[in-house]
Amino acid sequence: MVTVTTPIKAESRNLNFFYNGGNHALKGITMPLYDKKITALIGPSGCGKSTYLRCFNRMHDLYPGNRYEGQIVMHPDNTNVLADGVDAIEVRMRISMVFQKPNPFPKSIYENVAYGLRVRGETNKRVLDDKVEEALKGAALWNEVKDRQQDLAFNLSGGQQQRLCIARALATDPEIMLFDEPTSALDPIATANIEELMSELRNKLTILVVTHNMQQAARISDYTAYMYLGDLIEYGDTDKIFTNPSRKETEDYITGKFG
Ligand SMILES: Nc1ncnc2c1ncn2[C@@H]1O[C@H](COP(=O)(O)OP(=O)(O)OP(=O)(O)O)[C@@H](O)[C@H]1O
């Protein structure tokens, strides 16, 4: 019998994180992100889910005094994204992020999507047009906006704005996409659209998603990590975590005994 193993796209190795002033928010987290799979981070408020996610694209660099220890290694090139000398801007092109609240720039739909490409130095209109179209299609928004690309992004609905943010993140061809509670500000229909889109994106990239919604984690993810007070308590196949977790703490959380 041939066993096919899924390659690892990235992994944190003994990752610790300290907020300015010393708050030890992540405690030695070692965890893989499998290639073209969705990994969900769950756990009660304040357990470190967003902190972990934000390490991947060096968001914490934007505030002085924060400190990482350990590594986040991307494969196959073995780049430690936290290493000195690694350009955080380039990391954010490879590992892009979608936030909880849709946060389009005060620009046109077109310019929102073209933004990262322009930062990269792309000036050729033909290339920009093609890439914008491809990203809008990838975010399942093209049909709704193809005739109004010069409209202000703020004129879109909340769900459309979130798909625009996904298109903006897709435009630079990232290898990993981080989603921080991407549907918590959306209605159920927009939520279903984003979940479907995430399932489709899995065909081309690796996803790490923070969610408070355990049904959502169970619906969309392949792997689930349960965190508590900065520790990784349990990590495994989503089916196993939700039906037969190994740790009592995980079971208590997913059955709603606390949190
Ligand atoms: N900017 C900050 N400065 C100092 N401490 C912070 C900062 N942001 C978060 N923390 C602390 O780090 C810990 C982890 O917070 P984090 O936001 O990562 O948790 P979370 O699991 O994502 O929570 P939530 O589900 O509420 O978003 C908490 O103790 C929190 O108070």
Bound molecules: adenosine-5'-triphosphate
Count the DSSP helices.
10
Tell me the fraction of residues in β-strands, as a range. 15-25%
Secondary structure: number of strands? 10
Provide an overview of this structure.
The strands form 2 sheets. A 6-stranded mixed β-sheet has the order 6-7-8-3-9-10, with helices on both faces. The mean pLDDT is 94. It has a domain of 174 residues: 3-Layer(aba) Sandwich (Rossmann fold), CATH 3.40.50.300. With 259 residues, it is α/β, with parallel strands linked by helices. Helices cover 35% and strands 25% of the residues. Strand 4 and strand 5 form a beta hairpin. Adenosine-5'-triphosphate binds next to helix 1.
Features:
single chain; alpha/beta; Rossmann fold; 6-stranded mixed beta sheet; 4-stranded antiparallel beta sheet; 25% strand; binds adenosine-5'-triphosphate
Short summary:
With 259 residues, this protein is an alpha/beta fold. It has helices spanning 49-56, 88-94, 109-119, 125-138, 142-145, 158-170, 188-201, 214-220, 238-243, 248-254, and strands at 8-18, 24-34, 38-42, 67-74, 79-80, 95-98, 176-180, 206-210, 223-228, 231-237.
